[in-house]
UniProtKB/TrEMBL annotation, chain A:
Protein name: Synaptobrevin homolog YKT6
Matching InterPro entries: Longin-like_dom_sf (IPR011012), Longin_dom (IPR010908), R-SNARE_YKT6 (IPR045848), V_SNARE_CC (IPR042855)
Function: Vesicular soluble NSF attachment protein receptor (v-SNARE) mediating vesicle docking and fusion to a specific acceptor cellular compartment. Functions in endoplasmic reticulum to Golgi transport; as part of a SNARE complex composed of GOSR1, GOSR2 and STX5. Functions in early/recycling endosome to TGN transport; as part of a SNARE complex composed of BET1L, GOSR1 and STX5. Has a S-palmitoyl transferase activity.
Family that this chain belongs to: Belongs to the synaptobrevin family.
Cited Pfam families: Longin (PF13774), Synaptobrevin (PF00957)
Residue ranges annotated for the Longin domain, each copy included: 9-125
Source organism of this protein record: Clavelina lepadiformis (Light-bulb sea squirt)
Keywords annotated in UniProt: Coiled coil, Lipoprotein, Membrane, Methylation, Palmitate, Prenylation
Location, primary (coarse class): membrane
Record's bilayer topology term: Lipid-anchor
Domain of life of the source: Eukaryota
Domain V-SNARE coiled-coil homology: residue ranges: 139-196
Family annotation (SMART domains): Longin (SM01270)
TrEMBL record, chain B:
Biased composition (Basic and acidic residues): 198-207
UniProt region (Disordered), positions on chain: 1-41, 198-263
One Pfam family hit: SNARE
Organism, as annotated: Clavelina lepadiformis (Light-bulb sea squirt)
Source superkingdom: Eukaryota
Domain T-SNARE coiled-coil homology, residue spans: 271-333
Gene3D superfamilies xrefs: 1.20.58.70
InterPro entries documented for this protein: SNARE, Syntaxin, Syntaxin-5_N, T_SNARE_dom
Transmembrane stretches, start-end: 342-362
Name the UniProt record assigns to this protein: t-SNARE coiled-coil homology domain-containing protein
Family (UniProt): Belongs to the syntaxin family.
Keywords: Coiled coil, Membrane, Transmembrane, Transmembrane helix, Transport
Membrane topology, record value: Single-pass type IV membrane protein
Amino acid sequence: MVKLFSMSLLYKGPAVVIPLTSTYDLMSFNYFQRKSIQEFMTFTTQIITERTQTGQRQSVKEQEYLCHVYVREDRLTGVIIADQDYPRRVAFTILSKACEDFASKVPSKDWPYGQQANIQYNGLEPMLLKYQDPKEADAMTRVQAELDETKIVLHGTMESLLQRGEKLDDLVAKSDALSLQSKTFYKQAKKANSWCCVIQ
Amino acid sequence: MAARHRFSSNQNSSSGSWSISQSFASQFSNTPTKDPPEDSLNDQIAEVMSVANRDRTTEFQSVLKSIKTRQPNGVTPHANAKTPLLQRSEFSKYAKRIGTDLSKTYEKLEKLTLLCKKRTLFDDRPVEIQELTYIIKQDITSLKRQIQQLEENKTVMQTNTKRDVQRHSTSVVRTLRSKLANMSENFKSVLEVRRENMKQQKLRKDQFSSSNLSSSMPSSATQGTRGSVLLMDEQRSSNPSGSVAISMDGGDHPGRSSTQHQTMQLIDQQDSYITERAETMETIESTIVELGNIFQQLATMVKEQEEQVMRIDSNVEESELNIEAAHTEILKYFQGITSNRWLMIKVFLVLIVFFVIFVVFFA
């Protein structure tokens, strides 16, 4: 199933990576595991951001999770940890959107010095919730899904059309038989009439 | 200045004689003389015209060095400490090297063309094609660089040579450049052919796979993989990103097969995202086209069934007519019967006669 686990924004300074904001959705894990998993995710995002160069997008597989990272040209980095099924393209779209949003809300001079506490940005959580479903994030996925639905519906329509054809064939045959019989009926009646006169 | 003229005249002779003159220069350089060493050198060179091919360029260069040290303020040193003839031979050697590289790259391009022209569905070898493409790209860039260097050498050399030599070198550089441009053109066209072929293959694969589509819904979420239902391309093309250890499952997706492969990771890392998007758009476009097709077929079928409906209609009308007519006849018959008293009396008489006969016979 497609699921996002965490989203975080960091600033990749020349020497060190500074986490700016992050949000986690760990409802699917055991209550006791959550803390360790959160730490693990923070650590992973830090390491991965350090290993990625500017202007690059990367996806790294970690056990059953995929970690997508996108370092923008101005060193603002977004990281998403998702499960295997989440489409890669949509993840990067989300990252670009999140970075844009962040860049518009928080002035860029704050980035190199921000700590998690001072940065006032709460846009990540609603995004994480909203984008659990890849269709929300990405117009293309939506369009694709709708098109596929339409195709299914059309296939069904074709089936019913074929059935309609069969029924029409049936009706043709029956109406043919009916007209033949009515003709016979008419002829008989005529004959009966004329025979009656003969009797007279 | 005499030395310079002699040198340039020797330039036009074969390199064999030049090497012989070099050998003589080396022999005579070791004997220190009181004459200006350059003049003695020239005499020896002028005397030698036999043919023996040994490359003694290094010896000659050492001679030059020793000459220079013997004349502290005599000869004005050249800008780059090389004689024009040496530069010239270097130039031609360099040009020859570039020419051989060019021909080698041409061969590789031919191989690539052959590979790309194949249109079989399963024998496609994207690994080799990718590698070859990469190698050819490298070669083209290095050749460009070499030609650039050659041109720089030529401009440096130009100050010391005659005009037709300059023209010759210009034309050599121009020829090499045009050959390189030609080859890049060919390369581009081969890549386009390759892309066309991949599209064709995808179409054919879709034909095979489309019979499965009517029953199942193709997975709408694209994972950026371009696998098709037939397995081969799925497995080969499963890794478009440049990550350490990524594994992606191919979806049952009627997208086209990927052109990325692991050997191209490093180059196309940034492109893969954009390529994915482009391919998704293409998929969407093809889906829409399919839908249009389906609508068309629907319309045709309905039109055909229209005829059936007309036939039914006419049959039913005909039978209605017949039945009406028969009904009228019977009515007439009935009227004839009921209002015919004479007929009634006749019928009853016949009945009674028969009844009487029966009773009489029986009794």
